[in-house]
Structure formats: C-alpha cells, structure tokens
Design a protein that fits this description.
The protein is of the alpha/beta class. Helix content is 39%, strand content 19%. α7 crosses α11. The two termini are 19 Å apart.
C-alpha cells in the first residue's frame, strides 16, 4: 500500500459554515443536501469558484450543498468512507489509495478537475541546475502524496538513490506541510520544494526560482492533479444529485476558461472567506495561470502515476480496474455537444 497518501493544500479540516441556501422553488432531487470536500488550494479551483459563484447550488436547485475543507488526503478519504462527505475533490494518489485499500468498494472517480500546477522551486544560490540536486534538501507536502511520488520518481529517473520511507539518500526529501514550507525555506531548512500552487508561486515571491514545471515531464503537458470522487453508496442511492454536482462542475470549468481573470478573483474571494486572508496578486496570478481546469480525468496519467509510486517503492502494483465511472459526466458532455472522455480501460 502507498504510505501516507494525501492531497495537499492550505487550510485545516473544517466545516464550511456559510453554505448557500437551497432554492425554495428549485427542482426536487432524491437527497435534501449533499456535502462536498475540497482543499483551499488553487489546484482545487473548481470547487473554490463554483461555490463562490453559486454554480453548484444553481445546478442542485432544491438540494442544499454543504462543504468541508481538508488539509490532507487521508482525512478526506476517511470522511468519504464514513459518510461525512459524499463527493470530494482530491489528488490522484489518495484516490488510488482509497480505492485499493477498500478493494474497490468505497469510491469511484467520476470526473477530472485540474491538470498541472506543480513545480520544483529552489534556492538559486544553492541550486543552479537540476545537476545540483545531489546533497540538497527538497521538500514535498507529505510522505506518499502526489508530489512526493512525483519527486521520488523523478530522482530515480536521474539515477539518484533514495529510501522512499525515510526520505534519506542522495537527495534528502523533507516532508513538510504546505503551510509551513515557506517558513522552512526562509530559515534555510530546505533548499527547494516540489509543491503545488499556490505554494510554488509563494516560494518564488520569497526568493525561490522555478527550476522545473512538472507539466514538461508529461505528454502534451497534461497530468491529473485533482479528480472528483464519490462514495459508491451515495452514487447508487442518489445518482440525480451526483449528476447535478457534476453539472455544476462542468459549468464552473467552462466559466473559468471563459473568464480567467474573474475566476482568479472568485477563487481568491473564497480563500479569503475560508482563511481570512486573500493571496497577494504576485502569488495568485502566476498560480492561477499554472493550473488548467479540465472535465477530463486524464485517466492514462492516473495509470502512469500509479506506476511511478510502484517504481518509487511506495506502492505494490495496484488493481485499478473499475476505479472510474464516467457515465454521468459523459451524459452531461453529450448534452453540451462535447466529446466523451475516456477511462483508459480502467
């Protein structure tokens, strides 16, 4: 099993107490409410913007949407399994782990949400090029999380020897929460970090230099960073509600693509509401530009990311057959005149 898998983001696990009211005259669905989980993170732009703009509630009509904010993938998976949330935005590694750990019984990936938004940023005084990584200390958000797997796989591809569990080796991999990574960088405790947005852009404002954008390592510059998952129990009992949430997701992604500047401000307004503090423009603007929203789950890259975890020594070869159910998503895309997306045989 992949150790300590998590998604990564800002904010702590907490209920979002400012849920919008259901429409009194809205359509009646099979559940009175639905609870979603997400991260206060730019790679979770879809729920940030969709909630702030009311696009999910519009699609749900008379069913109220509630939300819970998480800081780590394992806690979100636990909440999904316990029924505390019904649908979640989450990274590929915790989705894989949750599916494998439950023997394919607890969740399904039902849509994509975002691609990209991950970079290796370094102290330019200590790391001039990728050849200078040996002997350096590079942070990732958590043992076994999506960025941790990506870094370990990259180091292995360059011939570096690493202990995936301890992080010790030719390069020291330090597992540090995104919230404290900038402090560790300022204090010289790390020489760089392989992190998602907005942490990468925040470190750049602290004097770091972007050495590698992870999208350059992938075909067509795309790889899944955020998926939409659902409890199989909730999907079975309330497919109409799941379809409405997906309708809100697709509509939100379309609005983000059509209105990128306004979307960045909407995401920032939601971040400010959650944390009391918005991102400065020097962080928000490059972070938002570096993330691509997508309805496509980019399933072939999920298979490859699982292979990376196996190669890094963090995961035994997983059986991912059945992890996707894209039926409702493709129904919505067809209604919009858009092409269907693929599950890559999974």
């Amino acid at each position: 099993m992949l150790l300590g898998l998590s998604a990564c983001g800002y904010g702590s696990q907490k209920a979002d107490t400012a849920a919008p009211a259901a429409s009194a005259g809205g359509k009646k669905l099979s559940a009175s409410s639905v609870t979603i989980g997400y991260f206060a993170n730019i790679t979770h732009a879809t729920p940030l913007v969709g909630l702030q703009r009311g696009l999910f509630q519009k699609a749900l009509g008379g069913t109220q949407i509630k939300s819970q904010v998480f800081n780590a993938g394992p806690s979100e998976i636990e909440a999904l399994n316990a029924g505390a949330i019904d649908i979640g935005w989450i990274g590929p590694s915790p989705a894989i782990n949750g599916y494998v750990k439950s023997h394919g019984q607890d969740l399904k990936i039902i849509a994509g949400s975002a691609s990209g938004g991950v970079s290796l940023v370094v102290n330019p005084n200590k790391v001039k090029s990728l050849d200078d990584l040996k002997g350096k200390r590079i942070a990732t958000p958590q043992l076994g999380n999506t960025q941790d797997v990506a870094l370990l796989n990259y180091l292995a591809s360059k011939g570096f020897k690493e202990d995936p569990t301890t992080g010790k080796g030719d390069v020291t991999v330090e597992r540090i929460d995104n919230k404290t990574t900038p402090i560790a960088f300022q204090q010289g405790q790390i020489d760089g970090a392989w992190v998602p947005e907005p942490t990468a852009s925040q470190l750049v404002t602290e004097g770091a230099k972007k050495l590698l954008d992870e999208k350059t390592l992938w075909n067509n510059g795309q790889f899944v960073i955020t998926n939409v998952v659902v409890s199989q129990k909730f999907l079975t009992e309330h497919p109409d509600v799941v379809e409405a949430v997906l309708r809100g997701s697709v509509d939100t992604n379309a609005w983000i693509r059509a209105n990128p500047a306004q979307a960045a401000q909407a995401a920032n307004a939601q971040l400010q509401r959650l944390s009391g503090k918005p991102l400065p423009a020097a962080v928000l603007d490059p972070a938002f530009r570096n993330v691509e929203v997508t309805d496509d789950p980019l399933a072939s890259t999920l298979r490859e990311e699982a292979a990376h975890a196996v190669q890094a020594g963090l995961l035994k070869s997983p059986d991912l057959n059945g992890i996707y159910d894209l039926t409702l998503l493709n129904k919505i895309l067809k209604a919009d005149g858009k092409p269907a997306v693929s599950d890559a045989g999974l």
